[in-house]
Design brief:
The chain is of the alpha+beta class. Helix content is about 45%, strand content about 20%. α7 packs across α13, α8 runs antiparallel to α9 and α8 crosses α10. The longest helix is centred in the middle third of the chain and has 32 residues. The radius of gyration is 30 Å and the shape is globular.
Length: about 500
Amino acid sequence: MSDTVASEENVNVSDTKQKLELQTNIQKVSACERHICVTVPRTDVERYFADEYGGLVTEAEVPGFRKGKAPRLLVEKRFRREVAERVKNALVIDALSQVNESGDITPISEPDFDYNSLILPDAGPFVFEFDIEVRPEFAVPEWRGLVIEKPVREFTKEDVDKAVQRILASYGDLEPIDTPAEKDDYIVAKIEFKDGDEVLSEIEEETIRIRSVLSLQDGTIGNFNELMIGAKAGNTIKTELTLSKDAPNEDNRGKTVTAVFTIKEVKRLVTPELTSEFLEKLGDFETEGDFRDGILDTLKRHMEHEQHQKTRRQITGLLTESASWELPPNLLAKQSEREFRRSVLELRRNGYSDEEILSQKNFLRQNSAIETAQALKEHFILEKIAEVENIDAAEEDYVLEIELIAAQNNSSPRRVRAQLEKAGEMDILRNQIIERKVIELISENAKFKETPFEFEDKDEEALDWAAGGFPKIAEATEEDLKAVNREIAERKMINPNAKVT
């Protein structure tokens, strides 16, 4: 016979109804940071031990005794270490849950502490400390009766014509030309980004449309068309750009670097004719009129998106005027990717093209700290209004959002939902739904002043590339692997059902 301990399925200490008699000391480190010291009295510690041993005595297998027949003192002595670990685990989980439910803080991240360093004493209270990021404390600003500008427009035939040409261009063919490049032609080039003689990054071959601006993840070339008009195969064209303070490669942030374009070829776009065969290729359009009606619907959705965005910017701008609290850099770094994904999801919902989305992605990457700080302040305020007004996301809200995203991306709602769940973006979608509902509520109680809606023509080409390169990933050492394994073990201790990736 071997020594075994009853499985956690048989005994679940966290199901106990009785609350812990916690003593909690919360220290305010900054507007969004708290240091918390939790003290669990010895009476609770002993109660948890008693619960564990109570279930274990009937299940434990001890040499020389039938299952469940060993004396309690012998069981306690033999399994003391295993039971102590389980009691510590249960106490930490229940204590953290109780702190969260107390209403004293509103966490926005997981507690930061080293589980393995926690010691459950043989006598006296169990004390542990941790740091956590929280929503700042503030009074809800007055949001009723705001005066807001609303952009409106009656779309014309010319608006639809321009949109049709943009769609036809996305299905066009690029044909090589021997004449010098003109505005809106394409160059095929090798690109090197250099800091002096050091090559920071390079693209062996890229096809780029000649527009006024060329944006990258970490910088912008503002006179791109002036540089490239007149270019021919064999030309080498150099220019400089300054990398953003939020560039992916921290070592190169803020540097002014040289971009070297070696032109391999010049091409010109030839767009297809709008024939019945082409309409079939585009989708369920029987006539050109049906296609143009579809384009008009998309333009209206774009305007609705811009109306929503402008309304949101005005509302949140007014609401965050008094939000002077500083946000810690580590919080901004962690939340920047979340805000990035939220913005992309919003654009997908409203039918923006991949090209337009990439341009917005690059803008967010270049200004991630500023954009994330503003977005977080907006989120905190809108979330608090939602709590006060009992606003939440219902299943039908998820269904509608997913159907809109699916329709704009020629996909099925089931597939889109599966993709969102796999990417862990359902909570982002939830926040998006709630924030939109709050904006709608504020809008219903606002006074609107109509202004002309104008399309924003950025005349920008975007590359999904960082001129300053990407952070180098060091090869994992044996110590690194041990650290990862320790972290996994800690996460499993805190939550045995956690998915570890």
